[in-house]
């Protein structure tokens, strides 16, 4: 949408309950769950299962909230592909497997680009995920140019996990731009986007070597 810092969105909300009034996102922890009774292996497996459940829950939530949105490409790719792609970059390239980080990556555009609220994110995904989504969400009450300026200014001050999400988000978008210019864009606008992204990434340095090297490669290749 044009009034969003997100230039790739070509909007909609999903209720928290289904037609029968049942919660779409109930508490996933079993009623007899007792962490103290688990041994070290059990604790590891339980954490893995909880993280997996959280990520799958976030995937479903993101798909519902972005369900009518498309990317700005000639194929009209479903927008949620971007959210999934950001999470995939984190796991496949950055080797990040933390459930909260991956869930927030999947949800990072829900508040900014749909009618989702932070209260919903908090209710369904907890404080840590909500805080990460907040760090990745621009203030839509500000002009677009101001929001882009603040992304540059605030980059270095974000938490480590939020920086990871931002790096993966930029990498996905830049690769998309390199592959094909977004619909409605000019080569000049695309080049300006790369220059702005380079400024943001500069403030995120020291977060993850693999992501930073990949970003340097795509940025330098395009701007050379």
From TrEMBL:
Its EC number is 3.1.7.2. ppGpp hydrolyzing enzyme involved in starvation response. Its cofactor is Mn(2+). This is Guanosine-3',5'-bis(diphosphate) 3'-pyrophosphohydrolase MESH1. Residues 79-174 form the HD domain. SUPFAM superfamilies: HD-domain/PDEase-like (SSF109604). Keywords: Hydrolase, Manganese, Metal-binding. The keyword Manganese applies. InterPro entries: HD/PDEase_dom, HD_domain, MESH1. It comes from the Eukaryota. It catalyses: guanosine 3',5'-bis(diphosphate) + H2O = GDP + diphosphate + H(+). It comes from Ditylenchus dipsaci. One of its GO terms (molecular function) is metal ion binding. PROSITE patterns: HD.
């Amino acid at each position: 949408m044009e009034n969003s810092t997100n230039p790739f969105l070509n909007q909609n909300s999903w209720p928290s309950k289904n037609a029968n009034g049942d919660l779409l996102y109930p508490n996933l922890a079993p009623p007899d769950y007792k962490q103290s009774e688990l041994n070290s292996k059990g604790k590891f497996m339980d954490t893995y299962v909880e993280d997996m459940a959280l990520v799958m829950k976030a995937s479903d939530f993101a798909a519902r909230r972005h369900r009518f949105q498309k990317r700005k490409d000639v194929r009209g790719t479903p927008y949620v592909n971007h959210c999934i792609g950001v999470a995939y970059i984190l796991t496949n390239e950055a080797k990040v497997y933390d459930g909260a980080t991956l869930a927030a990556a999947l949800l990072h555009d829900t508040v900014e680009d749909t009618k989702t609220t932070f209260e919903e994110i908090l209710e369904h995904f907890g404080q840590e995920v909500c805080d990460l989504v907040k760090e990745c969400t621009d203030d839509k009450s500000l002009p677009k140019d101001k929001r882009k300026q603040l992304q540059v200014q605030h980059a270095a001050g974000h938490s480590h996990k939020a920086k990871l999400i931002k790096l993966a988000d930029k990498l996905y978008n830049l690769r998309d731009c390199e592959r094909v210019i977004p619909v409605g864009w000019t080569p000049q606008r695309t080049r300006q986007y790369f220059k702005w992204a380079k400024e943001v990434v500069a403030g995120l340095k020291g977060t993850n070597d693999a992501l930073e090297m990949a970003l340097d490669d795509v940025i330098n290749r395009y701007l050379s």
